[in-house]
Amino acid sequence: MSVNSLFTKSGYVTAPLANGVGRYIPQCLRMTIKFCKSHGGSRGVREFIENHLVEFARQNPGTVVYLKPRRHRSPVVVAEYLNEGREWMPLHDMPCEEIIKWLGVLRTSAGYGEMHYRSYQHTDTPSIQGPWTPFTHQPPEKNIMTFPNDACQDPPLLKPSATEIIKKMYQNQS
Amino acid sequence: MVNLTRILMARHPSTVYNDSYWKKRQIFKMSAHFYGRARNCWSIAIRRVQRALQYVVAGRKLRKMWYHDMWNNRISAGSRELGNIPEGSEVMIESLIRSQVLLNRQSLSNLAIWEPRTFKAINNIAAVKDRQDNVHPNRGMPPTGIKGKLP
Fold it and tell me: Family, per the entry (chain B) (predicted)?
């Protein structure tokens, strides 16, 4: 809604401690997957656990995956991060492919949660040539000018007056 | 009260079918940052929230117009300061497009603020093209109302 809303955090794109600029440390500590062994809503989760979980764990040695089989409960994943952030996500009725994608999102997140981004770009050095100042495009001779100065009397884009135009026409004629 | 779980469980749809508490809660969540009674009183809050949502929809169009105007103003100011194109941003942008420099207004205004020397170079390209091709809209166009050829 509005940027001043209390419920939506707003901010700029960040990485914790410039993660990825030098080395990259995966921010996800552990993922806890709670599911039911028999209910239909956990079908995608069970398929993921049977076919893709071991590969997922092998590819992400920094992230611990816990499984909690709980009867008659909807499937859920809780991801916990190094900055003590926590993301809860329901996996009810989700197909296996979608679960793989969402776990990928959680794996690569940093624990800050949902945020309204004011801008998708951020830079600490927006200017290389130096930002504009009123003196940027002024000729440096002005630094050593003495006043009063004939050159500075009139406005810079002053057009000739009607009298001057007529005078000039007369001179060109003769 | 601090522990509201037992009270709120009494309102769960399994116990009470028609409870407007939850529907009103949706509106109060959106009015939480309003001033005064509009924050907490239902008949005032619902009106203010509906108006706020209309403003959000209308504001999407306005935001684009405001940014467009802001960028135009900044490009005009930068261009006029340099002096080669006194007419402002329209002539400069038209000249740039004809020179196949396809920078948008956002980029040009960013350059005018943060990279003034680059902006000056781009302005020079536009000025030269303007002189070559007579890009300025009213330059070379005679006034209307004169019919036939002048002697």
Answer: Belongs to the bacterial ribosomal protein bL20 family.
For residue A121, the chain B residues in CB contact (below 8 A) are none
What would the pLDDT profile of B104-134 be if each residue is shown by its tens digit?
Answer: 999 999 999 999 999 999 999 999 888 888 8
Stretches in chain A below the pLDDT threshold 70: 1-7
**At A119, is the secondary structure helix, strand, or coil?**
strand
**Which distant-in-sequence residues (6+ apart) come within 8 Å of B56 by Cβ?**
A1, A2
CATH T-level fold of B65-133: c-terminal domain of poly(a) binding protein (1.10.1900)
Its ipTM equals: 0.72
**Domain edges within chain B:** 65-133
* CATH architecture classification, A4-117: 3-Layer(aba) Sandwich (3.40)
pLDDT digit string (tens) for B79-106? 999 988 888 899 999 999 999 999 999 9
* Cis peptide bond N-terminal to A148, omega within 30: yes
Of A129, A137, A157, the CB nearest to B118: A129
What is the rounded distance in angstroms from the CA atom of residue A68 to the CA atom of residue A76?
10
